[in-house]
Amino acid sequence: MARLAVNAGHSVVVSNSRGPETLAELVAELGPNARAGTAEEAGRAGEIVVVSVPFGVHTKVPVGPLAGKIVIDTNNYYHERDGRFPDIDEGRNTDSGALADHLGTARVVKAFNTIYYVDLGEHGLPAGDPARRALPIAGDDPDAKRVVAELLDEFGFDTVDAGALAEGWRFQRDKPAYGPRFTASELREALTKA
């Protein structure tokens, strides 16, 4: 995602759990519009912040720097990796809902969780191409969803709005919309089959 953002003319701050120094090679590859920072620094710097961590550690995402910001949640809940979360297992919450609960005032939009990271860099096509891949989003803030849809378009993807953040379950793991390459009309159909 950082590469796509830089290629679209955005500046990025990347972070990971191992520290900014471990990202030196990536930052050098991305060029002058990229730098590494701590999670706190990346959160403070970003107008749009992407959270891509194993769901089991979502409560370690810093809250303060993300207050009021658009946060793209790319996460997927895998109980085998993350441990069991009864609220999710029993359908009382979703993985993105749990992140939103943790972050408080951040405007969380679930997106980019249905596409393999390699495909993200290879499947983008110009707007209007009949084979253009569509990706689903869900969120409670219409303006935040609009901004994320614009970003998806810049990256070469159509957007299908699945509705409120709670509807993100429709494109979670093991659902028809999770994984395959779909056009917008095909994705809408897959979402209805969830």
UniProtKB/TrEMBL annotation:
One Pfam family it belongs to: F420_oxidored
Molecular function as annotated in GO: oxidoreductase activity
Domain of life: Bacteria
PANTHER family assigned: DUDULIN-RELATED (PTHR14239), REDUCTASE (PTHR14239:SF10)
Key words of the record: Oxidoreductase
Annotated organism of origin: Acrocarpospora macrocephala
Transmembrane residue ranges: none
Protein's name in the database: NADP oxidoreductase
UniProt-listed InterPro entries: NAD(P)-bd_dom_sf (IPR036291), P5C_Rdtase_cat_N (IPR028939), STEAP_metalloreductase (IPR051267)
Lineage of the organism: Bacteria, Bacillati, Actinomycetota, Actinomycetes, Streptosporangiales
Domain Pyrroline-5-carboxylate reductase catalytic N-terminal, chain residue ranges per copy: 1-77
